[in-house]
Every structure is written in C-alpha cells, then in structure tokens.
Design goal:
Elements: E1 2-6, E2 11-15, E3 19-25, E4 31-38, H1 46-50
Antiparallel strand pairs: 1-2, 2-3, 3-4
Length: 98
C-alpha cells in the first residue's frame, strides 16, 4: 500500500495494487471523500465535488458562495454546522453544551 500526498491539489491517494482511495483537504479545512474504487491515477478530481450540487435550504457555509457542507461528501462530518446530516461524532461537555 502507498500513500501519496499532492500539495498542489491537497489530495491524499491511498492505493493498493487494485484500489484507490482519495480524500481532499478543502480550502475550508474540511476533509472530503473524493473516490474509492478501481485503481486510478489521481489528477485534478475537483469536478467530483462540483457535480454534487443540488438545491439547499441552508445558507452558504462560512459565508463562502456555493459552499454548503450538506452538499460535500465529508470524510468525517461533525456536529453543529450547516450540515444537517447525522454527524460522525457529537460531544456533550460537563455543562451540558454540545
């Protein structure tokens, strides 16, 4: 297995002899799932994220136009953001806040 980081596209390509698993660090510092499947040569796969746009009732995340966490295939989504899907983790502090 190899792990290759491409700084220009901010992607990690984890590959075996037959598979590729690609994740990307977005400008917002969120981690997006880009690809998993048959081995490919990772180039610029940003079109994968653009092709997932759909209608939203939410505002843009962090005031960035056309950036909605609910439309991003996050690798590990957290709680308390504009993404209304189930989070991977939700913590409650001693004072009861989440």
């Amino acid at each position: 297995m190899s792990i290759v980081y491409d700084a220009s596209s901010q992607t990690f390509n984890l590959s075996t002899s037959k598979t590729s698993y690609i994740i990307k660090v977005l400008d917002s510092k969120h981690i997006a799932h880009i690809y998993w499947g048959k081995k490919i040569k990772a180039k610029n796969l940003d079109y994968v994220l653009r092709s997932r746009n759909w209608g939203s009732f939410l505002t843009n995340t962090d005031n960035v136009d056309n950036f909605m966490l609910e439309a991003i295939p996050q690798e590990y989504p957290g709680y308390g953001s504009t993404d209304l899907r189930s989070p991977s983790i939700e913590l409650q502090f001693a004072d009861g806040t989440t």
